[in-house]
Design brief:
Elements lengths: L38 H5 L2 H16 L1 H12 L6 H4 E4 L7 E4 L4 E5 L6 H20 L8 H14 L5 H6 L8 H17 L4 H16 L12 H19 L2
Parallel strand pairs: 1-3
Antiparallel strand pairs: 2-3
Helix pairs in contact: 2-3, 2-5, 3-5, 3-10, 5-6, 6-8, 6-9, 8-9
């Protein structure tokens, strides 16, 4: 499992004898191991209703999410609302995560309270899902693979926009966007992996340039919803051009 806006760890797997136990972040998502509640119980749960309504709004109106959904469909990984998204209770302050075992995005219904937050979480986790679709990502054993996807998610999801950073009281630094992406990628790895900060920083630094400059499927860093709309339009036009070749 993975941390909300800033993480996307993989699912648990059996450990070899003597290997250090690692839950791959599942401790943050306790509902993953519970029997699903009935539709009636879930429909009466305010958090769940609110989560579903906000998710629907994101998928129908947010250009970041719309571009990613179309890109995944083009890559043969069509996303279905009722199959690939799950509103659940989570521990801590995480907003969501990507479960590669089920190809499912978990949305933390008890922590996501605003539509703007839902937009960022869905976009962040869809980037992980897109990476999972297009590449052979070793979420379990290769921390560099995880670091790369975390860098891309922080870079392209809007996590590090100027307004979000001002809200965190972080602004005015040279190369601030790159600094924000690096810091959030490291934080995400530490949230879902039992590794030292030194290990997380080393993994991020070793792949940073290549992964920061991998802008697929946006083709640009979308610093705002306007940028995302332009990227979505360019993506659609690119597909139309390729179809006419």
């Amino acid at each position: 499992m993975g941390q909300g806006e800033a993480a996307s760890p993989p699912p648990a797997e059996e450990k070899a004898v003597g290997e250090e136990e690692d839950d791959f972040g599942y401790r943050l998502f306790p509902d993953r191991n519970k029997k699903p509640q009935s539709f009636l119980v879930r429909s009466l749960f305010t958090f769940h209703n609110r989560c579903q309504v906000m998710l629907r709004m994101t998928l129908e109106t947010n250009p970041y999410a719309q571009l990613l959904l179309e890109a995944m469909k083009q890559s043969g990984c069509t996303v279905f609302n009722d199959r690939h998204f799950s509103c659940e209770n989570c521990d801590g302050c995480v907003g969501g995560g990507f479960d590669s075992a089920t190809s499912q995005i978990v949305l933390c219904q008890n922590n996501i309270r605003q539509q703007s937050h839902m937009n960022r979480v869905v976009t962040h986790e869809l980037i992980h899902a897109f990476d999972h679709c297009r590449a052979h990502v070793d979420w379990f054993k290769n921390v560099k693979h995880l670091a790369c996807s975390e860098i891309r998610a922080a870079n392209l999801s809007g996590d590090c926009t100027l307004m979000n950073e001002i809200a965190r009281f972080k602004f005015g630094l040279k190369r601030h966007h790159q600094t924000c992406v690096r810091d959030r990628a490291i934080r995400s790895i530490l949230a879902v992996r039992k590794v030292s900060r030194e290990t997380a920083e080393k993994a991020v630094d070793e792949v940073f340039d290549a992964c920061f400059n991998d802008l697929e499927p946006f083709g640009r860093i979308p610093h705002s919803k306007t940028d995302a709309k332009r990227a979505y339009r360019d993506f659609q036009n690119r597909d139309r051009y390729n179809a006419n070749l």
